[in-house]
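thread: overnight batch results

M.L. [08:02]
morning all. the overnight job finished for the chain we discussed friday. pasting input first so we're all looking at the same thing
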Amino acid sequence: MKMRMFLIFVLAAFLAPAVQAIVLDNMDNVLASNGGLWHDERNYNPPLLKQNTDVAFVCDTTGSMMIDYTVFDGGQYDVVPRANIIFPTLTPDMAITFCWYKGNTAGPEHVREIILYSNNLGDAVARYAVANGEETIAVGWQYVVANISDFVVTQGTFDWSDVDTIDIWVSCWGYVGPWGEEGSYQIMPTNTPVYIDCLQLVPEPATMSLLALGALAMLKKRKA
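M.L. [08:03]
and the structure it wrote out:
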């Protein structure tokens, strides 16, 4: 019996957040020009924001967002995919999660920041730092959990009940630094794409685990 309850607890702890997650975009159809949600706020030509269907660079389902730095010509360091997504009321016990793929450990290509916009009280901005270009990040999928409680409001009076726009700021600007100090230098881009997938909103895991355990206990009581 004790072992059964322990297994139930473990399963609830790991499965409850996944079951309760709100899928904001599975990235199977990215581009607004094709019916998707996203466009590049910097509007580069040729475009760096693209749809990917190569399953080798898909974290979930059949597609992902591609930032195609193979066409980098020395000027498009920052690519800012923007989507208009109507969020539910965001609270501190929630988190925005997604996966991104790092293609070259030696290169500076990375997801830099998540930016949320609230327009109810003016152009208010809240930011969450993912990486700044100095970190050494291994090749492969990176899983980001951006807790709402860790977002920093940098502009205006933010209304968490009225968030309708999100940016995922991607950059190939990197450096060994701190930048500007003696001995610092820029890490040059390696023309390696970045892939983004599985954008979700999840509740705080511990809370959901307790709710799941409560539901299981109620079911057990009803059977008894």
